[in-house]
Write a structure and sequence with these properties.
29% of the residues lie in helices and 25% in strands. By secondary structure, the chain is α+β, with helices and mostly antiparallel strands. The chain has a single domain, classed as Aspartate Aminotransferase, domain 1 (Alpha-Beta Complex). Strands 1-2-3-5-4 form a five-stranded antiparallel β-sheet. Pfam families: YjbR (PF04237). One of its GO terms (molecular function) is DNA binding. Keywords: DNA-binding.
């Protein structure tokens, strides 16, 4: 199961990105963005399950990434995915970090998001 820590390590190792905490009110929100253009390619957040279509109010980690618009709907209908939480729902996708989505797929989607936002 990919964790927040795994994603942050992946971003640092592959893209030399260190997460940024932009909001004191939300200390568990971490943005990953390009150094040269400041565009975000991912954000990790801790949100209640019911914010991403799951039952309950337990707080979970999610990852929002930029995604090809034609993939957003099909992916968001799969278990472990949701329409983007708190981002543009046409261009962003939420991955629920609960072990449902494979490590390989998560890293591939991060790579795609990074390339799309270059």
């Amino acid at each position: 199961m990919v964790t927040r820590s795994d994603i942050l390590g992946y971003a640092e190792e592959n893209y030399k990105t260190i997460s940024e905490h932009l909001w004191t009110r939300y200390p568990n929100y971490e943005v990953l963005r390009h150094k040269h253009n400041k565009k975000w390619y991912a954000i990790i957040m801790s949100v209640p399950k019911n914010k991403v279509g799951l039952e309950g109010d337990e707080v979970i980690d999610i990852l929002d990434i930029k995604c090809e618009p034609e993939l957003v709907v099909p992916l968001s209908s799969r278990e472990g995915f949701s329409r983007a939480y708190h981002m543009n729902k046409e261009h962003w996708l939420t991955i629920i970090l609960n072990g449902t989505v494979s490590d390989k797929e998560i890293y591939s989607l991060i790579d795609t998001s990074y390339e799309m936002t270059k």
